[in-house]
């Protein structure tokens, strides 16, 4: 798969380590920065750019890392069509795909060590969305988003 990978300055080292790991798993990585750990990078800018790549179909999945993983997930979820989740354990990473069809996984470099993060990434990348009952629930989320975008939701 083609995997978008991005970080802010707080997670530069984790991003670099994950890049090598994901490539070793046999995937292609598109690196959206950061370029070092001292130049401040605003995580929303990275999250938006990577999310646009998912929506354009140039990326199959994406992994975003910052200090906590939280800001990246919040920002990515603001991009219509994106389902981004923060997961720091393998069970959540598996369910993020199987239940939620999340195209984006986020993690925090100040929360999880690199060895555990690699296991989470591996589980996330090897898990697929089976559809079924989960598809109905994901569709409910996407329908709600569309209502808001069209101004026909409770914001009307
Ligand atoms: C770092 O503490 C934090 O502000 C940033 O990296 C990111 O985690 C925000 O959500």
Automatic annotation (TrEMBL):
Superkingdom, taxonomy of origin: Bacteria
* GO biological processes: carbohydrate metabolic process
Gene3D superfamilies named among the record's database cross-references: Sugar-phosphate isomerase, RpiB/LacA/LacB
Q: Name one GO molecular function term.
A: ribose-5-phosphate isomerase activity
Q: What is its EC number?
A: 5.3.1.6
Which InterPro entries is this protein grouped with? RpiB_LacA_LacB (IPR003500), RpiB_LacA_LacB_sf (IPR036569), SPI_LacAB/RpiB (IPR051812)
What's its top-level EC category? isomerase
Q: Which Pfam families match?
A: LacAB_rpiB
Tell me the keywords, alphabetical order: Isomerase
Could you tell me which NCBIfam families the record lists for this protein?
A: PRK05571.1 (NF004051), rpiB_lacA_lacB (TIGR00689)
The entry's family comment says: Belongs to the LacAB/RpiB family.
This chain belongs to the protein called Ribose-5-phosphate isomerase B
Q: Supply the gene name.
A: rpiB_2
């Amino acid at each position: 798969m083609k995997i978008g990978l991005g970080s802010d300055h707080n997670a530069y080292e984790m991003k670099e380590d994950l890049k090598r790991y994901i490539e070793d798993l046999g995937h292609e990585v598109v690196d959206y920065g950061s370029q070092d750990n001292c130049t401040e990078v605003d995580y929303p800018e990275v999250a938006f750019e990577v999310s646009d790549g998912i929506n354009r179909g140039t990326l199959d999945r994406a992994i975003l890392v910052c200090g906590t993983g939280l800001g990246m997930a919040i920002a990515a979820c603001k991009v219509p069509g994106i389902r981004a989740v923060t997961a720091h354990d393998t069970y959540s990473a598996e369910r993020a795909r199987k239940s939620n069809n999340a195209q984006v996984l986020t993690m925090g470099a100040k929360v999880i060590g690199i060895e555990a993060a690699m296991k989470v990434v591996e589980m996330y990348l090897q898990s697929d969305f089976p559809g079924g009952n989960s598809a109905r629930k994901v569709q409910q989320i996407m329908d709600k988003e569309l209502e808001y975008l069209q101004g026909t939701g409770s914001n009307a």
